[in-house]
Specification:
single chain, about 0% strand, transmembrane helix
Length: about 70
């Protein structure tokens, strides 16, 4: 569980960075659920690093969606 949760968090972070570019903000609609699943798996696996990575991906993804309205 630790490895899968951290892997989902890393994938969500990569997608979140791509979602910061103009016209790619829609990627966060896929990254946030991925990060939430990774967060749940990290909590079950008690992976502190995975929890931090997934939480960062969720907050920045939500922030980006709020800025661009979820499309841009």
């Amino acid at each position: 569980m630790k490895v899968i949760g951290r892997l989902f968090g890393i994938l969500a972070l990569i997608g979140m960075f791509l979602g910061m570019f103009p016209f790619l903000g829609w990627l966060n609609w896929f990254n946030i659920p991925l990060a939430i699943i990774g967060l749940l798996l990290s909590i079950v696996g008690k992976s502190r690093g995975g929890i931090i990575i997934c939480t960062i991906a969720i907050f920045f993804g939500l922030f980006r969606l709020l800025l661009g309205g979820g499309i841009f």
